[in-house]
Amino acid sequence: MDRKQNVWIGTEVGLDKMEIKTRRFTHYKNNPADTNSLISDVAACFLEDRKNHLWIGCTEGINLLDNKTGKFRHYLKGNGIMNLFEDGSDIIWASTYRKGLFRFDSSTGNFISFVNPNTGLPINNVLAVTEDNQKNLWLFSITTIMRLNAKRDLLITYGKDYGIRRNQNGWVRTIKGPSGDILSGDQSGYYMFSPDSIISNPCSAPGSYN
Q: How far is CA 93 from CA 61, 130, 145, 148, 165, in A?
């Protein structure tokens, strides 16, 4: 639900908006003849940023909706979008299926690749992103949980040795609780951990799996 109390529903045959006040439905679909239509009919994730812009991640890229015209601007064409997230510095992050992690550069109006600051290689298979109270980003991949520090110049990876199980389903949902704990769940179970305790003791496991 967006700030105007509209409910957005992503399906495999297009995108629907339900206006609760007027009980009106609007259906958006890809139209090959219209370059400003929905980039693909499979809508996977949504983000309403702090400027009230609505971003929709699809199997073929990102859509930015123009609320006045109902048209879309496209980004990262040809990339399956797994997750969209806005951090505390108003930077929008997009994780793709195979091309790594991107962040939006407001000065150029484009998404740019964000590589692993330790290796210079793409950060692949990121399924979800969230931020803790210290502005560290937590990246959840198929086989690991990663912490990207607030300066975005150090990436710490927690894998099998820390009790992280392989994600068998290809999707993850995360949320930060009122106390700052981070919860991450998929169809097999969930993790819950306190980021502060991990930062102060880097040899400890990220949390419990249930």
A: 13, 10, 16, 13, 24
* HSE, side-chain direction, 13 A CA sphere, residue 77: 8
The residue ranges of DSSP E strands in the chain, in sequence order, are 6-10, 15-19, 24-28, 43-48, 54-58, 61-65, 72-75, 81-86, 92-96, 101-105, 110-114, 126-131, 137-141, 145-148, 155-158, 173-176, 182-186, 189-193, 208-209
CA geometry: angle 106, 107, 108, nearest 5 deg: 90
Q: Where are the domains of the chain?
A: 1-81, 115-210
Q: Which helix (H) or strand (E) holds 196?
A: helix 195-200
Token pair belonging to 158? 């927690």
For the chain, percent of residues with pLDDT exceeding 70: 93
In this predicted model, what pLDDT tens digit does every residue of 50-84 receive, in sequence order? 999 999 999 999 999 998 899 999 999 999 999 99
Distances (CA, A) of 171 to 66, 132, 174: 28, 20, 10
Specify whether the CB–CB gap between 58 and 39 falls below 8 A: yes
Query: SS3 of 198, please?
Result: helix
- The answer to whether the CB of 42 falls within 8 A of the CB of 28 is no
What is the rounded distance in angstroms from the CA atom of residue 163 to the CA atom of residue 83? 24
**Do residues 79 and 60 lie in contact, with contact meaning Cβ atoms separated by under 8 Å?**
yes
Interval 13-43: pLDDT, tens: 999 999 998 989 999 999 999 999 999 999 9
